[in-house]
Structures are given as structure tokens and as C-alpha cells.
């Protein structure tokens, strides 16, 4: 996941009188030469800087206002509920906060979240992306006091696009089951009725076995419950 995280704060040590410096009210300097908030995403598996911090410039005004945009490429651990697969919807939380500054030292002012326009993903669509703040208390290393930190939770809601699974798996399976059931009631020749029914049954079972291999390869593995696609296929198999 590629994140664009804009930061802004006021630094009293970066205030100057513009009239004493030829009217200069704004400067850009490398971000690695400044103090930066130690914002951290706690539930990440891996993080990479998509743009090195040495190549990112901070924008500073004469009033001490600092603005810097950080870009991070992160792998986030998100529990998935696939019981309604392929019509499922997943919720992923990004837990963001300061690692070393308590709430009386650092607070967050969350602006509106947004998702930039992009070409989209062939399998997922973004439903919403929201943010909320909460205060978390942790015992200190001595165990004799509570340290309070302000944390921001960004909630990303994703919905799977089921068209591929409907066209490639569900519709062909439904047609196979329908043809096999109808085939049991159509008229047969007097000589080969038994052979034709046996041949139809074997052909249907072989076809369903091929589809089963496709389903097992596409269906996510989970012990929390059988996905909806698996339940439908099991029902089709019993019908045959």
C-alpha cells in the first residue's frame, strides 16, 4: 500500500523576520535536516520509503509553519473475513501514532482523508477511507504509572469485484447442473437408456471435478468458515 502522509506543525525555532532577509517569507530545505514527528504505523509488517527522506523538501514559512509530505510503501497486516467470498467486503485499520511522545507532548489534528484518482484495481474497489482519534493508556516500564498516547485509526473498507468468479465459476457450474438434471428426464432410446444416463452422469462428474480444481485454486484458505462460493459448489455437487 502506497501512503502519502502530509505533516504540518509550528516550530518556534524556525521563525524569522522577513524584513531583515530581503522579504523572504518561505524557504525549502531538505527534510532530513529538520526535526520530524516520529509518526509510526504500529500494525505494519514492512515499510519502505518510496522517496528517500534526503530527497524530500520541507516548506517553511517565516512564521515557523513547517509542511512536509512523506511517502511510504507499507505492507499492513489485516485480518480477512472470507465467509461471503466472492461477495465479501474487507475492513483494514491502520493504527498511527507517536512512538515516544505522550499526549501532553504531541497531539494530532486529523484532516479529511481522501483517495487520489487512479485507474483502479481489477479485483478490489475502495468503499470508504475514514479516520478517528482515540487515547490509549499503557503502563510504563516500572509498572507504577499510566502513560497516555494519542492514536489515529485510519479505516480502509474494500469490496471485492465478483464478476470474474460469477462468469468463470458460478454460471458454468449452474449450467452443468441444470443440463445434468434435465438430461435425466428427457426421452431416451429403448436400447441405450441405461448407457446414456450412465454416460451423462460420468461426463457431469468429470466436468464438476475440473471445476472443483478451479474453485480450490481460486478460493481463499480459511478455517474460520466455509466461503459462500464453497457452499454453493457443495450444493451443486450434491444436486448432481
Q: Can you put this structure into words, describing what you see?
A:
There is one protein chain. This protein is of the alpha+beta class. The chain has three domains: about 1-75, Acetylcholine Binding Protein, Chain: A (Distorted Sandwich), CATH 2.70.170; about 80-160, Acetylcholine Binding Protein, Chain: A (Distorted Sandwich), CATH 2.70.170; about 165-240. The protein has helices at about 165-185, 195-220, 230-240; strands at about 1-10, 25-30, 40, 45-50, 55-60, 65-75, 90-100, 125-140, 145-160. Helix 1 (about 165-185) packs antiparallel against helix 2 (about 195-220) and helix 1 (about 165-185) packs parallel to helix 3.
Determine the number of helices (DSSP H or I, runs of at least 4 residues): 3
**How is the CATH topology of the largest domain named?**
Acetylcholine Binding Protein, Chain: A
Structural class by SSE content: alpha+beta
Per DSSP E runs of 2 or more residues, the count of β-strands stands at: 9
Q: Please identify, by name, the CATH architecture of the largest domain.
A: Distorted Sandwich
What proportion strand?
A: 25-35%
CATH class category label of the largest domain? Mainly Beta
Amino acid at each position: 500500500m502506497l501512503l502519502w502522509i502530509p505533516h504540518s506543525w509550528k516550530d518556534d525555532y524556525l521563525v524569522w523576520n522577513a524584513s531583515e532577509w530581503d522579504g523572504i517569507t518561505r524557504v525549502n530545505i531538505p527534510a532530513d535536516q529538520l526535526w520530524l514527528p516520529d509518526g509510526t504505523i504500529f500494525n505494519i509488517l514492512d515499510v519502505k520509503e518510496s522517496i528517500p527522506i534526503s530527497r524530500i523538501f520541507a516548506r517553511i514559512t517565516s512564521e515557523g509553519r513547517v509542511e512536509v509530505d512523506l511517502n511510504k510503501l507499507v505492507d499492513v497486516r489485516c485480518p480477512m473475513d472470507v465467509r461471503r467470498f466472492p461477495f465479501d467486503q474487507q475492513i483494514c485499520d491502520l493504527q498511527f501514532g507517536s512512538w515516544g511522545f505522550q499526549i501532553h507532548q504531541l497531539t494530532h489534528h486529523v484532516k479529511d482523508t481522501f483517495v487520489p484518482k487512479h485507474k483502479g484495481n481489477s479485483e478490489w474497489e475502495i468503499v470508504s477511507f475514514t479516520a478517528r482519534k482515540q487515547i490509549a493508556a499503557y503502563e510504563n516500564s516500572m509498572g507504577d504509572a499510566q502513560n497516555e498516547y494519542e492514536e489515529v485509526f485510519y479505516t480502509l473498507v474494500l469490496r471485492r469485484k465478483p464478476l470474474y468468479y460469477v462468469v468463470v465459476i458460478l454460471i458454468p457450474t449452474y449450467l452443468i447442473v441444470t443440463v445434468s438434471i434435465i438430461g435425466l428426464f428427457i426421452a431416451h432410446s429403448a436400447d441405450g437408456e441405461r448407457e446414456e444416463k450412465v454416460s451423462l452422469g460420468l461426463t457431469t462428474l468429470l466436468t464438476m471435478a475440473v471445476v472443483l480444481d478451479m474453485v480450490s485454486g481460486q478460493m481463499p484458505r480459511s478455517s474460520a468458515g466455509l466461503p459462500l462460493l464453497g457452499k454453493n459448489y457443495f450444493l451443486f455437487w450434491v444436486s448432481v
